[in-house]
Design goal:
171 residues, alpha/beta, Double Stranded RNA Binding Domain, 3 helices, 35% helix, 32% strand
Length: 171
């Protein structure tokens, strides 16, 4: 019976000390983006020759930001900031070759590269600039175009995760 008050006091002291350790629940936005809650993401500019890649990357990024929950995606006229981006590079390279013929590709590596800027809508100044790239690997089957489309979609998902982490977690 006499140990109960001391255990309660010890538990209270433990809670107080752990609250002072600097950890918080939830995401930590970078300090320069902490005041932004509503973000607009217009379609990325496509500086490559790859068709329909701009909408693929933009949609993947919007879905990733919505899943993260750090920003509310709104139209440009309601936004506090706008994330503008451009796809600067789509590259294909041989990752693995056929054992009997080294010129024949058996596995392909697709890489996407982007540049993006977050601009404050009230002042018009740039708040954040960044570049990001992501790669995907695909085993080629008889339908090469379908394999490449799947690799591009996977690379866009990876790229959107990288950008979303940078603007919502700071890394």
């Amino acid at each position: 019976m006499t140990k109960l008050p001391s255990l309660i006091a010890l538990g209270f002291i433990g809670i107080v000390l752990t609250n002072c350790s600097g950890y918080t629940l939830g995401g930590q936005k970078p300090s320069h983006l902490a005041g932004i809650t509503k973000l607009a993401v217009p379609t990325f500019e496509n500086q490559t020759l790859e068709p329909r890649i701009a909408s693929l990357v933009t949609n993947a990024l919007i879905k990733q930001i919505q899943m993260d929950g750090s920003y509310q995606i709104v139209p440009q006229d309601e936004a506090e900031a706008v994330l503008n981006g451009s796809i600067t590079r789509v590259s294909r390279s041989q990752f693995r070759s056929d054992r009997r013929n080294v010129l024949r590709t058996s596995q392909l590596q697709m890489t996407l590269g982007t540049q993006f800027t977050i601009t404050d809508t009230t002042s018009g100044r740039s708040i954040h600039k960044g570049t990001s790239s992501a790669s995907s690997y695909v085993i080629l089957d008889s339908n090469v175009q379908n394999s490449e489309a799947q690799a591009l979609e996977d690379a866009a998902q990876r790229l959107s995760g990288t950008i979303a982490n940078e603007i919502s977690e700071g890394w």
